[in-house]
Amino acid sequence: MSALFRLLAVDGVARRGRLETAHGPVETPVFMPVGTQGTVKSLTPDDVREAGAELVLANTYHLMLRPGHELVRELGGLHRFMGWDRAVLTDSGGFQVFSLSKIRTLREDGVTFRSPVDGAAHFLSPERSIEVQVKLGADIIHVLDECLAHPVTHAETERSMEMTLRWAQRSKAAHVTTTDGRQKLFGIVQGGAYEDLRIRSARETVAVGFDGYAVGGMAVGEPKPVMYDLTARVTELLPRDQPRYLMGIGKPEDLVEGVARGIDMFDCVLPTRNARNGQCFTADGPLVLKQARYTRDPAPIEEGCPCYGCRRFSRAYLRHLFMARELLAYRLMTLHNLHFFMGLMGAMREAIAAARFEAFKARFFRRYAVSSEPVSLDDDGGP
After folding, report:
1. Of 98, 176, 208, 332, whose CB has the highest number of CB atoms within 10 Å?
2. Euclidean distance between the first and the last CA atom of the chain, given in angstroms as a whole number
3. Radius of gyration of the chain (CA)
């Protein structure tokens, strides 16, 4: 077994496991709340912990620009800086850099870009990304990769995937020389919507050798069946005894489908971003509280939910707060959404341990009304 990951149970392809990090164990499958700027928007670390989160994601790109990784290190590292005593995962910063196509220049050695904060020029290379993440002090860090939008030609996707593989090798070399071994490094599988490139990327990334493997570049415009099929194809090629992370995926139905295809880790901005837009998640599907139908509704967001908002307040009151733009609305809706996501992951872990995952999946989809709302790929760094 991996020093990071222990596989506890398997039900079909679905996996139940445990990550052993320097800041405590993380039960998998796990959903990571996104704390882009070193905070899960509108919530305190105690809120996040009490909702059941054991691992949060912070963003290398944003923290490098503001307040700066050197300052974070000076003040004791990211855990102390943000008041979070459990595990932290950082991405490489690659997605944010490559989404800024109008203000960046890409070369083999790395990417030059202008900060949207103050316009200053910055350079991010595989080595620089590892340096920043090591100084931030995250438990799990990532290689620098290039993420392409969909659709992209096979030739362009192959070029990008090959560069990501070269950057993976450089990232690993930099990691070996800059860490004490407590920080675990994940490789990233790319390859766009092309099965042959995904297969090649998976095999060659595994050949480099990492502590875990992320599947990047999904949910960027490709049809859902393509995402599901490619995820399944990639997980078949990844080591059984190491963690698998599907990056940026978080609709509840996609979490269930991802676990059914052997994924252990997920992150997404949906619990926080959608709360700020008046949407709450329930076992029956998304509920948009800003709709007029909830003006006089005395029920909680969801009966039986243990979150503070559901225990104390009605849909009518929460809608009032939201329509009045009161900050408490964002906090209470976010808190509910996070409880829902943590509860969903906990239910899947229990189902896998009991060898009843397929029955759980069938029950989930009989009840859950899938939303047609498109997923935003933002990183929750906005207001």
Report:
1. 332
2. 42
3. 20
Measured CA distances, 221 to 20, 92, 218, 227 (Å) = 34, 22, 8, 10
Residues with a known catalytic role: 91, 267
SS3 category, 379: coil
Judged against a pLDDT cut of 50, whether residue 26 lies above it is answered with yes
- Per the CB < 8 A criterion, the answer to whether 186 and 21 are in contact is no
Q: Supply the pLDDT for residue 62.
A: 94
- The token duo for 107 is 């070369």
What the block records as the tokens of 356 is 């009843």
Residue 284's nearest CA partner among 267, 271, 301 is 301
Q: What is the pLDDT of residue 181?
A: 78
Dihedral sign from CA coordinates of 299, 303, 308, 311? positive
Sheet holding 212-215, edge to edge: 30-33, 265-268, 244-246, 212-215, 184-189, 140-142, 87-90, 55-58
| pLDDT above 80 for 249 | yes
Question: In terms of C-beta density within 10 A (0-12 exposed, 13-18 middle, 19 or more buried), how is residue 121 classed?
Answer: exposed
Q: Please, are residues 189 and 213 in contact by the beta-carbon 8 Å criterion?
A: yes
Q: Which residue has the tokens 């320097």?
A: 22
